[in-house]
Amino acid sequence: MSAPPPEWFTAGLPHIWLPYTQMKTNAPPLAVARTCDTRIVLADGRALVDGIASWWTACHGYNHPHIQAAMQRQLEEMPHVMFGGAVHEPALRLARRLSAMLPGDLDRVFFSDSGSVSVEVALKMATQYWLNKGVRTRTKFLAFNGGYHGDTIATMSVCDPLEGMHSLYSGLLPENYIVDLPQDAASIDAFEKILERHADELAGIIVEPLVQGAGGMRFHDAEVLRRLRIAADKYDLLLIFDEIFTGFGRTGSMFACEQADVVPDIITLSKALTGGAVGLAATIARKGVFDAFWSDDPKAALMHGPTYMANALGCAAANACLDVFEREPRLDQIASISRALEDGLAPCRVLPGVADVRVRGAIGVVELEHVENVDTLKSRFVDAGVWIRPFGRIVYLTPAFTIDEADLKTLTDAIFNVLNSG
Ligand SMILES: Cc1ncc(COP(=O)(O)O)c(C=O)c1O
């Protein structure tokens, strides 16, 4: 028998509206007391091994002392100051470091406070790029089935049409072109045809490079990204890589675009940017994009400015997060995690109801043929002492890169055992 929930839980829950949750029928949330390394400690004292690093953010594990110390120092000096007409050292240092890490001339950083907003900014940037060049017709985007770019209105319009609930919100969402990723003869042909017919309506192409995350943890080859770059160049389109999930090591290299040797025109980053400490995001443009806004005309400026953009506390956390990437052997650890995920999840291949098992970098996926009740599955994982949150037919692991062998085995064993017991 677990302990009764704390007072703050029972008194506050009736006033909370949870994400992606049918508040009437879904199981109540768990009360969390604290986090530590790769553990989530519940109010009733149970400690769960975290398999998903808080929606892929806590890449160095929870409460990393270097990130915490940097935030504490920043908190005392200045948690926040508006970024309009004023700048501060943590933001400028972070911008310089991100520019140095990213390939090519991706070197103008626009900060915001969440992944969705950074994608909104990318879409707005690409559209205004054309307007500033005097082209008024290029206002749409080409995006891909299986993609996910956020939950705000414009980002939903470039998500997978089903996942993005395009029919539910029809009339509200901007209309864009959504096709299959060009991976085989038929999809390459369809992709080329759309471009031939509609390129002059398009501002750009947006894609999650190498792994489409929340849309189903689907993988594609680097060749697809090279194909997109060639098409974008041929039809004069801006290529946007949304690396909010794939950035900072998750696919095995610091950024997924490196594996394809492709430089996008705009890249979006968030999630692991602060090591899971606080919300921060960045939209980074190449010189050629920025140049279209460099003008004597005030109307050519990028008209966007979230109140908490470049939050000093967030930038301090992100700088500390990058220090940790520099100091600790993260890419080696990711390669070891990848091997352990391959080994640990391989036995699931023979289980009835398993459609596919796949691993890329520190992402392990068991795709099921169907899931009767995802809530039941989630609670069985909690009973097994792990925090694993399947969505749809996808059971996946995206652990902290600092996870040790024993905890990783606990996670892969839990998936095997839970799926094996029906
Ligand atoms: C690839 C990608 N883009 C955008 C987003 C949206 O980020 P946020 O939830 O911070 O708005 C996500 C979130 O899962 C994502 O995975």
What is the fold's blueprint, element by element?
Layout: H1 7-12, E1 32-36, E2 39-42, E3 47-50, H2 53-56, H3 65-77, H4 89-101, E4 106-112, H5 115-132, E5 140-144, H6 153-156, E6 177-179, H7 185-198, E7 202-207, E8 211-212, E9 218-219, H8 222-234, E10 238-242, H9 256-260, E11 266-269, E12 281-286, H10 287-291, H11 312-327, H12 330-345, E13 354-360, E14 363-368, H13 374-383, E15 386-387, E16 394-397, H14 405-420
Parallel strand pairs: 3-15, 5-6, 5-7, 7-10, 10-11
Antiparallel strand pairs: 1-2, 2-3, 4-12, 8-9, 11-12, 13-14, 14-16
The structure holds pyridoxal-5'-phosphate.
Residues 114-116, 119, 148-150, 208, 213-214, 242, 244-245, 270 line the site of pyridoxal-5'-phosphate.
Summary of the model, kept short:
The chain has 422 residues and is an alpha/beta fold. It has two domains: 7-60 and 329-420, Aspartate Aminotransferase, domain 1 (Alpha-Beta Complex), CATH 3.90.1150.10; 65-327, Type I PLP-dependent aspartate aminotransferase-like (Major domain) (Aspartate Aminotransferase, domain 2), CATH 3.40.640.10.
